[in-house]
Amino acid sequence: MSARDAQPKAIQLKDYRPPEYRIERTELHFDLRGDKTRVTSKLTLHRNPDAETHAQSLTLNGQDMTLVSVAIDGRKLDSDEYRLDDESLTLLSVPDTFELTTVGDIDPEHNTSLEGLYKSRTMYCTQCEAEGFRKITWYLDRPDVMSEFFTTIEADKAQFPVLLSNGNLIEEGDVGNDRHSDRHFATWHDPHKKPAYLFALVAGNLEHIEDHFTTQSGRQVTLRIFVEEKDLDKCDHAMTSLKHAMRWDEETYGREYDLDIFMIVAVDDFNMGAMENKGLNIFNTACVLAKPETTTDAGFQRVEGVVAHEYFHNWSGNRVTCRDWFQLSLKEGFTVYRDATFSADMGSPTVKRVEDVSLLRTLQFAEDAGPMAHPVRPDSYIEISNFYTLTVYEKGNEVVRMLANLLGPEEFRKGTDLYFERHDGQAVTTEDFVAAMEAVSGRDLTQFKRWYSQAGTPVLTVTDHWDEDAGEYHLTIAQSCPPTPESQSKQPFHIPVAMGLLGSAGALPLHRKGQAPDPETGDNTHTVLELTEPEQTFVFERLPEKPVPSLLRNFSAPVKLRYDYSRDDLVRLMSGDDDGFCRWDASQQLAIQVIQDVMQAYEQGDDIATASVDERLVDAYRSLLQDTSLDKAMVALMLTLPSEAYLAEQSDTIQVEAIHHSRAAVKRVVAQALKDDLRAIYEAYDHRKPYRPTAEDIAERSLKNVALSYLMTLSEPELLEACEQQYRYANNMTDTMAALSELVNSEAKGADSVREKALSEFYDYWKAEPLVVDQWLRVQATSHHPKALETVLELQKHPAFEANNPNKIRALVGAFSNANPVNFHRADGEGYRFLADQILRLNKVNPQIAARLLTPFTRWRRYPESLQALMKQALERIKAEPALSKDVYEVVSKTLV
Ligand code: B3K
Ligand code: ZN
User: Fold this and answer.
1) What is the 3-state secondary structure (H, E, C) of 39-73?
2) pLDDT on residue 653
3) Residue from 114, 125, 270, 272 to probe ligand 1 pocket by mutation (most atoms less than 8 Å from CB)
4) What is the fold, at CATH topology level, of the domain defined by 474-492+494-563?
5) Maximum CA pair distance of the chain?
6) Which pLDDT belongs to residue 181?
7) Ligand nearest to the CA of 197
8) Distance of CA 164 from the midpoint of ligand 2 (Å)
9) I need a surface site. Which of 244, 520, 694, 765 has the fewest CB within 10 A?
10) What is d(CA 131, CA 127) in angstroms, rounded to the nearest whole number?
11) CA distances from 771 to 639, 695, 729, 815 (A)
12) Fold for domain 323-453?
């Protein structure tokens, strides 16, 4: 597609029409032969009685294939009986019921888009969501066409001993009658009707681990994880996670697995984390492989979360799927909600909540405020791959979470039961999901549904008034939502605000004026205010003292909250609030205020090396460090200063250098003031303890490494040595990487040589482990040293880097441009030029990855003018490329509007 000669057309939700035909049965035959792989497809089609139109012709999707033949009911069509173009095959005259046979050739060897059938290292694999199946065979490639699949794969026996597809294996053997045949086949049958996007095929020389699971109704399921032989020792954590997820889904949602076998395959070249193909999940190695020596705590948690997420899709996505791609959040938002609650149950709920909210508030809020902002259920898209976004996934999760909280656990469960029961085997909409919730609760959720249709992050402006004489506290909350590309003015949202009031000695009882206490909860210190109007006032009476409000507990809605907390209020919340999320959030707000003080000094040209830092922050941190009764995970979270990305979100114009240096200065001052306490924490840790990825041990490690990170800002030789020791002798990758990252960023005397040595030894030791090499690339790409870009350019020439492997691109290019603001936003624009070069190269090779890399550029209007101009230049250079992919074209053109 060329952006110049034909602008790609946007697809609109309002244009949705039911399919004209249904495909009852899909029979596929793959003859895997490298660059000339032949796919024969036999489809049984019936005219859809629910279709709105009745055309004589039928158009199927298909691209990047060579048509060999097409037949209807066994009769080969002449070339004047069909029309073929780059994106479709139109059969000019079709009966109401017929069998369509197409034969086509495809070239998986050279398919670098990693969509459709492609080769990853030595194996063939597929990725069909959203619209990759049309690169495999001509089809009605849309999620509301669901079919039963029979798949036969034929391939070389020696090279591809393992042949997998969806469902249950029904036959396998050698090809032909020749006993010495070097080719074999396997036939799989998936009895569950599914859309083509859930199709999968794998052929490779793979090993597997096996386990079993007995479902709640007593059925035996075989579980297999397939990997290259060298990775067999990294599958146990995924298997354990899978079994936990299967049990949890039965207990929490009453959902049971429905085939005899569940398989996971790990592949190295993958555009995203994983894919929930029916019975045959395909995973990026980064989301399935784990062992302590190679994988960090975060990696272990990612594996657990992603394995669960993909497994949960078996019901929320596969059994009940999406009518069209505008409904993507129907499966993704709900499934993220399911995996988030699962991970919370497996580990620490507060830590999980804080991590998720941090992601949402930094990256999703930025997306919602930028040129790519779209509702959870978008109204239009040019390329659907661009809509696998934080909004659809993470904000979609928040919307389901709000529903779950508004209904309460019992009703929500009744609602999901009804949803699954009503729509099993169907392709449905977010409306259907909400309708099930309405049916079980009797609530009218009409206004709530605006969360699906209106983009933008609502802002709650909270003011209060204390009436000492009456003992009354008046809380006024006004809501507003900034304009976004799809709509200038927004209607009020239905927003649940969970809250409590804090007195000097703890939580105060809540008496809402004119309202009886909630008899159900028995807890009168916590309530949920439901906002539905542009402005509402809530009055609390019989209060003994002026309270400090604890608002938006557990982040009860995806909104920005503005309330003018004094620093003393924040200190009170940090130590006294019952809600873990609000305690953490108060620590963040206090730190933001303190860092902003220093930023002001920086902007005035003051020397901030010895910045004065509000004692209240230091004192609050000291209490956290000294209180041994506190949960270590909470302490680690609360001591972690807000990220540069979150600080950037707090200002209209992002002053990259001021943020970076002021945050660093505050960290140094805190470290100096609390050196003894931090050392005590660091030294109390037993580095010889065997590694376990439990919530308790993860918490201990993270607190110890937070302490190390503070201490390393002091640039003392002794600490440098301690850090080097940790790097050298740690028995797990979490501690190794924590130390390596500190060494890479250290400004201590002698750090340069320690760093060089550590980095080169690390690579020599780990070069055979791609996922460890990714971490090695990432730690260098995110270095604060002024030569980081030069290092990144060098690393692109290093044998460690594979130019077309998405994990390597994310580790080096993605990490540099998203997580290294001071270097990416270099005043000379070289960071931008570098990223534009990468995008232009990948535009042809892998459009999805190229479009993803544009994200930092979409924020260009948030920076000072000089940087804006340079970013715009880079964007215009990309836009001028004559053969832009749809993916890149959509993001660039919307960004430059
Ligand atoms: N459903 C897939 C994402 C597919 C992305 C296609 N570009 C993974 C997931 O969300 O579970
Ligand atoms: Zn998903």
Assistant:
1) EEEEEEEEECCCCCCCCCCEEEECCCCEEEEEEEC
2) 98
3) 272
4) Immunoglobulin-like (2.60.40)
5) 98
6) 84
7) 1
8) 22
9) 520
10) 9
11) 29, 23, 20, 15
12) Neutral Protease; domain 2 (1.10.390)
Average pLDDT of the residues of the chain: 97
CA of 332 to the centre of ligand 2 (A): 5
Q: Give the C-alpha separation, 271 to 127, whole Å.
A: 9
Find tokens 């469902």 and name the residue. Answer: 167
Mean pLDDT of 810-820: 99
Please name the fold of domain 21-283. Answer: Immunoglobulin-like (2.60.40)
Peptide bond into 130 cis (omega under 30): yes
Query: Which of 312, 355, 352 is CA-nearest to residue 333?
Result: 312
Question: Beta strands 123-127 and 66-72: pairing type?
Answer: unpaired
Residue 246 is encoded by which pair of tokens? 């299967």
Cβ count near 57 (within 10 Å): 12
Which atom of ligand 1 is nearest to 848's Cα?
Answer: 7
pLDDT digits (tens, 9 = 90+) for 284-324: 999 999 999 999 999 999 999 999 999 999 999 999 999 99
**Residues with catalytic annotation?**
310
As a whole number, mean pLDDT of residues 237-260 equals 98
pLDDT at site 2: 42
Q: List, by residue range, all CATH 2.60.40.1840 domains of the chain.
A: 474-492+494-563
Sign of CA dihedral 235, 241, 244, 249: negative
Give the pLDDT score at 520.
64
- As to burial, measured by CB atoms within 10 angstroms (0-12 exposed, 13-18 middle, 19+ buried), residue 104 is buried
Q: Which residue has the higher pLDDT, 512 or 517?
A: 512
Q: What percent of the chain has pLDDT over 90?
A: 97
**Closest ligand 1 atom, residue 273 Cα:** 8
Pocket test for ligand 1, best of 128, 129, 307, 886 (most atoms within 8 A of CB): 129
Provide residues with CB under 6 Å of ligand 1: 129-130, 272, 274-276, 309-310, 313, 332, 385, 388
Q: What is the Å distance from ligand 1's center to 799 Cα?
A: 30
Give the lowest-confidence range in 177-191, 347-361, 703-717.
Answer: 177-191
Kindly report, as residue ranges, where domains of CATH 1.10.390.10 are found in the chain.
Answer: 323-453
Ligand 1 atom nearest to 276, measured from its CA: 11
Kindly report, residue by residue over 92-147, the tens digit of the pLDDT: 999 999 999 999 999 999 999 999 999 999 999 999 999 999 999 999 999 999 99
Give me the amino acid identity at 660.
Answer: H
Closest approach atom of ligand 1 to CA 332 = 10
Q: How far is the CA of 310 from the centre of ligand 2 (A)?
A: 6
What is the residue-wise DSSP string for 622-645?
Answer: HHHHH-TTS-HHHHHHHHSPPPHH
